[in-house]
Specification:
Blueprint: H1 3-17, E1 20-24, E2 30-33, H2 51-62, E3 68-72, H3 83-89, H4 91-102, E4 106-109, E5 133-137, E6 140-144, H5 152-169, H6 183-200, E7 203-206, H7 219-237, H8 240-259, E8 279-281, E9 291-297, E10 300-308, E11 323-325, E12 331-340, H9 341-351
Parallel strand pairs: 1-5, 2-3, 3-4, 6-7, 7-8
Antiparallel strand pairs: 2-9, 5-6, 9-10, 10-12, 11-12
Length: 352
């Protein structure tokens, strides 16, 4: 192992040991969002396009159903905007956060884009900011941290990145194309978090890369696994429906590879002997086709996609997963993947 990686793993171990602990049972509900990047409401505010969707889902779905809300870093975009301006612009969102906080159901961690919050006197903030969080479910652990801590570079150069964004990129209306637009950087960070979780025999839940992961698989991996399953089904049934589903998934996979020609391909994503379900990523609220999050309910964990049909109608036609309309709005909720936590932890403990 490289010395650099040893330093990062030592850093993650310290973060893990000092994490705030929250015990949850089967009756508890948890939703995890990350990477809102809330700004000042202007044209360079990445949060703005999905702000109504996020606000409505939070207030009318998660708050009403007594979910614990975990905001896993990069909530305020402090590398481009002042905290006061952000809170003034998004008063409604902050008020909803406060409602969760009043019920003891808000947990907020720090990311690399709102790292300044950890330097502010916590009494001056509307709610405290944590470095990391540990969820304990039936004596099994889920380690929640933003993800930049798995990169030595981000810790070392965060101030310089912030200065560049604030005084050069932001005035010129240049978008922040950081790790979320570089598959190699994503892979390096995810790989470290994956192997750390495997070593500890726990689940790691991150954000930061803006790439939704479920059981250590991203969209490409999930499509490939689905195609393999359908091929087995087709061998038995010879169904035209199954053949068409395989064809559609192949086309979707080709499109992804055309968009990301530099994608790293491995027989197992992080070069493990077994594919371990140790890494999850809630994705981001600022996606072009909606927002993603992770939900924990009834002892299961799910990757959920929210979208506005005015922006994207493609999911309404999906045969693979069904979407549910929220009240009589244009907002829809779609469960992409779900699995039993005890089954996941069994695989982690036996195969790690």
């Amino acid at each position: 192992m490289k010395v650099t990686n040893k330093l990062v793993y030592t850093q993650l171990e310290k973060l893990y040991q000092e994490a705030t602990t929250l015990h949850i049972g089967r009756e508890d509900k948890v939703v995890i969002f990350s990477d809102l990047h809330m700004g000042n409401g202007g044209s360079n505010d990445d949060f703005k396009p999905n702000s109504h969707l996020f606000t409505y889902a939070l207030e009318n779905h998660y708050l009403n159903k007594s979910f614990n809300l975990i905001l896993n870093g990069d909530i305020e975009e402090l590398q481009k905007f002042k905290l006061k301006k952000i809170h003034e612009q998004w008063k409604k969102v902050i008020e909803i956060f406060k409602e969760f906080h009043k019920k003891g159901k808000l947990f907020k961690t720090v990311g690399n884009h709102d790292l300044q919050l950890s330097l502010i006197n916590q009494d001056k903030l509307p709610f405290p900011t944590l470095e990391s969080l540990k969820l304990i479910f039936e004596e099994q652990e889920m380690f929640i941290f933003h993800g930049h801590q798995a990169s030595k570079k981000y810790q070392k150069h965060n101030q310089l990145v912030g200065f560049t964004l604030k005084y050069f990129a932001n005035p010129l209306r240049i978008k922040n194309y950081s790790v979320s637009h570089d598959s190699r950087k994503q892979y390096k960070i995810e790989k470290i978090a994956y192997h750390y979780a495997a070593y500890k025999k726990i689940i790691a839940i991150i954000g930061h890369t803006h790439r939704p992961l479920f059981e250590s698989m991203d969209k490409k991996d999930r499509i490939r696994f689905k195609i393999e399953q359908l091929c087995r089904d087709y061998a038995k049934t010879k169904s035209d429906y199954t053949a068409n589903a395989i064809k559609a998934l192949k086309q979707g996979l080709r499109k992804i590879y055309k968009r990301e020609p530099g994608y790293i391909q491995n027989p197992f994503m992080y070069n493990s002997l077994f594919h371990l379900p140790t890494l999850f990523n809630s994705g981001t609220v600022i996606g072009k086709r909606g927002m993603t999050c992770l939900e924990i309910e009834n002892g299961k964990i799910s990757l959920v996609h929210w979208f506005d049909k005015k922006i994207s109608k493609k999911y309404l036609k999906s045969d693979e997963v069904k979407s549910t309309q929220l009240d009589n709005t244009d907002y829809y909720r779609m469960v992409i993947n779900t699995d039993d936590l005890n089954y996941i932890f069994t695989r982690v403990k036996l195969l790690s």
